[in-house]
Amino acid sequence: MNFELKPLGLLACANEKCDALIVLVPQAFKASKDDLSQLIAQAIKASDFETKPGKTLSLYRPLQANADRVVLAGIGDGSARQVRTAVHAALALVKTPSLKKLVLSFATPAQEGSVRAAVSASADASYVYVTTRSKPEPRVLQKVLIACENASEVKSSFDRGVATVIGVELAKEWANRPANYATPTLLAKAAQELAAFPKFSCEVLGPKEVAKLGMGAFIGVAQGSEQPLQFIVLRYDGAVKTKAPTVLVGKGITFDSGGISLKPGAEMDEMKYDMGGAASVIGAFRAIAHLKPAINLVGLIAACENMPSGRALKPSDVVTSMSGQTIEILNTDAEGRLVLCDALTYAERFKPAAVVDIATLTGACVVALGGVRSGLFATDEALAQALLAAGDASQDLCWRMPLDDDYADGLKTSFADVANVAGRAGGAVTAAKFLQRFTEKYPWAHLDIAGTAWKGGAAKGATGRPVGLLVEYLMSQAAAK
Ligand code: BES
Ligand code: MN
Ligand code: ZN
């Protein structure tokens, strides 16, 4: 899909040849003299159109415009959130099989985040997954022109939006793929392809190298599967060597059956999405390849399947992590923290400025926050604030969760240094407390994206979250210097 940003007012937009023109009208709209403005003003005056977000008015080949269809869409206060609502509502009205070229026109000067929201929402609404269809019907929408008078002011926000879309769509692609089309080996290949970009490199460690590193927890999870585990190390060196890197760590369970602590059958297919954290790391790297900021970035992905077999981990087994800490496995379905803890120890060697792990870690986080906000846990105040702000700016929201030491009490056991599960209560927090034990050497944050990485039900599909948040955070680090 191709995005373009042009400094056009309503008069010029009306002259653009396109399949559909969506005019985004805020409550503060004041009509100018051109025909389209006058038409909008009349529609508002006659109460045929309201500027509340989600409200629309469809027009068929109106004489004022060169477009086949024109939809007026209210954007209320013009904020990013309201623009997203408006673009989704309007696109639902013009999404015909012939919609190839779309013009999204801001009727008044656009706010920064709103341009980004318009880019993301039009991509989101037109995305289709095709990889495993025998007769694929690919996305029809090819070109989106964003038109606003103050285009030069919002250019960087537009660029970030376009980069985010590219990253989000790569993350969606890998997360949506069925588990037999997204094995650890195939995921590693996808990461390796990113090494073709300038200043990018990728190294993949297999079972032998990982055994040498002593990653006993990661190996334990992988040992029930026929698929060999892969430990992926991605790098982007965009700044001077002396600048400490940010490290992103992704949970890459390409299928989570639960292992011997087998999950129930209903909706188990959705556990193909258990590599959503890994997909978001790959997506964030892809976006960074587009934006080329002056930062150093490391991506670590622990990829394997969690399967039951004669060789699989059993409840009561004790494994030794790379950190030397021993872990008693009480539930083999709490595997995410086991693969992550070894990746978090590996992260130490980069002497990172910050480490952020991203994981579809707990069903408890879905209960706590649903699908709106990801759970954010952080040991560092500045890092927490930066991630919260990045979530707001990109409309890829998260919510701070606690890390009081009392939450770790349930992880105590007589048979190892720590158990891999506590009781049912506060499950998202106890999982984070487990991870925290492996993060003492650097500022650390953890994003539990179990509720936000994909949607279930009729509209089942990956969301590409939290690529938007990560890109915004990384760009803010580049600006901070
Ligand atoms: N991948 C799951 C978490 C999950 C469950 C994400 C449902 C999204 C929807 C994770 O590996 C898991 O199974 N966690 C267990 C932990 C429990 C055994 C302590 C859970 O949340 O039930
Ligand atoms: Mn699990
Ligand atoms: Zn899992």
Report what the structure shows.
- By secondary structure, the chain is α/β, with parallel strands linked by helices.
- The protein folds into two domains: 2-153, Leucine Aminopeptidase, subunit E, domain 1; 168-480, Aminopeptidase.
- The chain is 35% helix and 22% strand.
- The chain is built from 14 helices and 19 strands.
- The strands form four sheets. The protein has an eight-stranded mixed β-sheet with strand order 7-8-10-9-13-17-14-15, sandwiched between helices.
- The longest helix has 22 residues, at 155-176.
- The mean pLDDT is 97.
- It is found in: Cytoplasm.
- InterPro entries: Leucine_aapep/pepB, Macro_dom-like, Peptidase_M17_C, Peptidase_M17_leu_NH2_pept, Peptidase_M17_N.
- Pfam families: Peptidase_M17 (PF00883), Peptidase_M17_N (PF02789).
Which properties best describe this structure?
481 residues; alpha/beta; Leucine Aminopeptidase, subunit E, domain 1; 2 domains; six-stranded mixed β-sheet; binds ligand BES; binds manganese (II) ion; binds zinc ion
Beta-strand share of residues:
15-25%
Number of helices: 14
- Uncertain regions spanning at least 5 consecutive residues: none
Structural class by secondary-structure content: alpha/beta
The strand count comes to 19
- The oligomerization state is single chain
Helix content class: 25-40%
Major β-sheet annotation: 8 strands, mixed
SSE topology sketch:
Layout: E1 2-6, H1 10-15, E2 18-25, H2 35-45, E3 56-60, E4 67-74, H3 80-94, E5 101-106, H4 112-126, E6 143-147, H5 155-176, H6 184-193, E7 200-205, H7 207-213, H8 216-222, E8 230-237, E9 246-256, H9 276-291, E10 296-306, E11 318-320, E12 326-328, H10 336-347, E13 354-359, H11 363-369, E14 374-378, H12 381-394, E15 398-400, E16 418-419, H13 427-436, E17 444-448, E18 454-455, E19 461-462, H14 467-480
Parallel strand pairs: 1-6, 2-4, 2-5, 5-6, 9-10, 9-13, 12-16, 13-17, 14-15
Antiparallel strand pairs: 3-4, 7-8, 8-10, 11-12, 14-17, 18-19
Protein name: Probable cytosol aminopeptidase
InterPro entries: Leucine_aapep/pepB, Macro_dom-like, Peptidase_M17_C, Peptidase_M17_leu_NH2_pept, Peptidase_M17_N
Subcellular location: Cytoplasm
